[in-house]
Amino acid sequence: MNLRGAAANAFFAKPDPGTAGALIYGADAMRVALKRQELIANLTGPAADEEMRLTRLSAAEAKSDPTAVLDGLKAVGFFPGPRVVFVDGATEAQAAPLIAALDGWAPGDAALVVTAGALRKTSKLRKTFEAHPKAAAIGIYDEPMGRDEIDAAIAAEGLVLDTAARRDVEALARLLDPGDFRQTLTKIALYAGGEPVTSEAVAAMAPATVDADIDEIIAAAAEGRADAIGPLMQRLGGQGVGAVQLVIFATRHFQQLHAASVGGGAGSIRPPLYGPRRDAAERQTREWGTRRLEAALAVLMETDLTLRSASRAPQVAVMERALIRLAMMVRGQGG
After folding, report:
1. Is residue 210 scored above 60 in pLDDT?
2. What pTM was estimated for this model as a whole?
């Protein structure tokens, strides 16, 4: 079978116990690894490692010992329960023993889970898994997480989100790699301590930087480079970055500057900044001063409320005007 989208996500979340296995392939090794972990955990259940129900092989080991994979599929374990043979990092050059093992699979054998990099449609390994009636081939692509994946990640951490926090979490999912997104959710869960999660909690635990262009546009506002903001907004829009994401990170940045202003300098910022980032924060803190930083935070709060309201104003335009307003403020031309 060749699975995509919702069908692939459903397979990862609740695989058929009688499956022969799956080939998970894609150029992004982190995304492939996360899906592989999810699938194996849901196939084997808990304690698979301790009960020796999971056999790991590299693709090189599988090639050097052509019968090792099939032997692993046929082996009888000491403990009851489903078994998996996992082969990592397969290429077309190492496909032969994997194809032979899948062809030799029978009901009752372990499931075969194989990961690989990007594979062409003509790949023999891919064609074999696609053609097998009890196996699946699933391509993992560099695209934003779907709603089902976001919901599953939220549920896995046991998070209860209010409406604003949910919007912020979805914004982070569009910006972060899946691995970074899940790590951020774990941090939010620890921060919330079992309490309902607010937008403020999401902002507090969000990574300080997600993309160099986001850093650049916030720096442009903080340094008074109003003419740079329009082109940067267009670039970010092309990357799928929205106004809500921008206001989250802009607010965080100006909160850091305010903390530095009232706390005696950039050294008081937590988590600490180093090198050029610290130098830039120190310079921006001096240029703004506490009073104007407080005014900037008020602008961002007003913008945030507008973005989350029922206003029909174009969100990107609202955010762009706010950033330009900040850039004018630091130059003493606005307020």
Report:
1. no
2. 0.55
